[in-house]
């Protein structure tokens, strides 16, 4: 499907010359009143031939950290392509964005609808339009996401590392944590990869926020990829460590209560260490939620209460006997980006030191 019959140079009747930057509005549908509905896109074309990369955000309309990162790139006049092409899409799901919603008006998930169908539902038609117009012109893709509602994610890249091209560009992006997975059926990245446009996602932060350290990380990573492809001049910035995660696990509460966390996003945990404590409204401890294994905290709930079965913490499982990343993390300088992100994301949750007595706490008996 990704035949590259469409090029970076020609968009309908609009011709983009080498070295030119053009703002476009790609109409994909119309409102009830008959007004056109369009996606805003900026296209940058380098002087010399080279790869075309698309960078998209807000496929889920409420995940706008990536929107903030792409807007920084758009407004950066020092970003001059020497070769190739760059397609910047700050908001894909404009209809969800305008409604503060993850979904389109027909309540379908755009990121489960690719490559779409030109004769299908509103969401399916939209997915097909984006796939043809953006993915169909691109050699690589970077899709920016956040955690879903009432959760936060520590920055991580997710990609199918069986593709050597994805190994190369995700390594260049420079994220400390890479989750090796192909993505769910119908997702943009999986469908794009199947159409020979290697695409990965960057997950970080919360919905409906533009968090400064998260956008800094995203911008740095995108620039790294452009440098690695010879598309802009500059030096790549390496992360303090890199690790590949093959398996993840959600840790869930067994007792209801208020949550006091003992870890933050990005922290390293060991098996049986305390992640959080639940307590009653009158302060009586009910449960110490423990880590089932060694790992790194990928994400956490931002809701200060939990009931049995609700997710509390998302772990990326790591064998700490073979991987010494905890030594690196424990010695982060205060101004290291990873430490600043950890501290910023921690402001959404209550973190306290575990009480040694609480290590023996178990759900209280019913009276």
From TrEMBL:
Protein name (Swiss-Prot/TrEMBL): Succinylglutamate desuccinylase / Aspartoacylase family protein
Domain Succinylglutamate desuccinylase/Aspartoacylase catalytic positions: 49-226
Name of a matching Pfam family: AstE_AspA_cat
Keyword Zinc listed: yes
Statement: the UniProt record of this protein carries the keyword RNA-binding: no
Comp. bias intervals (Acidic residues): 355-367
Region of interest (Disordered), ranges: 348-367
CDD domains in the record: M14_ASTE_ASPA-like
Cofactor dependency: Zn(2+)
Keywords, sorted A to Z: Hydrolase, Metal-binding, Zinc
């Amino acid at each position: 499907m990704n035949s590259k019959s469409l090029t970076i140079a020609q968009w309908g009747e609009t011709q983009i010359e080498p070295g030119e930057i053009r703002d476009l509005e790609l109409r994909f549908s119309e409102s009830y009143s008959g007004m056109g509905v369009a996606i805003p896109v900026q296209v940058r074309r380098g002087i010399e031939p080279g790869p075309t990369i698309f960078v998209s955000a807000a496929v889920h309309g409420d995940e706008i950290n990536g929107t903030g990162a792409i807007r920084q790139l758009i407004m950066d006049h020092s970003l001059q392509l020497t070769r190739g092409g760059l397609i910047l899409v700050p908001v894909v799901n404009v209809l969800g964005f305008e409604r503060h919603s993850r979904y389109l008006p027909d309540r379908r998930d755009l990121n489960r609808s690719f490559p779409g169908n030109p004769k299908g539902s509103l969401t399916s038609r939209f997915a097909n339009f984006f796939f043809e117009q953006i993915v169909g012109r691109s050699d690589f893709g970077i899709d920016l996401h956040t955690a879903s509602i009432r959760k936060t994610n520590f920055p991580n890249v997710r990609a199918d590392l069986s593709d050597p091209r994805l190994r190369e560009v995700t390594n260049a992006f420079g994220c400390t944590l890479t989750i090796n997975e192909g993505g769910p059926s119908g997702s943009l990245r999986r469908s794009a990869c199947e159409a020979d446009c290697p695409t990965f996602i960057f997950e970080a932060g919360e919905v409906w926020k533009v968090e400064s350290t998260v956008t800094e990380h995203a911008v740095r990573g995108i620039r790294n990829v452009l440098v690695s492809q010879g598309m802009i001049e500059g030096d790549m910035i390496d992360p303090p460590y890199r690790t590949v995660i093959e398996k993840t696990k959600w840790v869930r509460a067994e007792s209801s209560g208020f949550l006091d966390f003992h870890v933050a996003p990005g922290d390293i945990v060991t098996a049986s260490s305390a992640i959080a404590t639940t307590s009653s409204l009158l302060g009586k401890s009910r449960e110490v939620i423990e880590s089932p294994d060694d790992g790194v905290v990928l994400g956490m709930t931002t809701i200060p209460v939990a009931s049995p079965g609700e997710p509390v913490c998302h772990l990326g499982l790591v064998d700490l006997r073979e991987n010494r990343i905890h030594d690196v993390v424990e010695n982060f300088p205060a101004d290291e980006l990873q430490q600043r992100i950890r501290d910023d994301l921690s402001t959404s949750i209550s973190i306290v030191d575990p009480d040694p007595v609480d290590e023996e706490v178990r759900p209280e008996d019913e009276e």
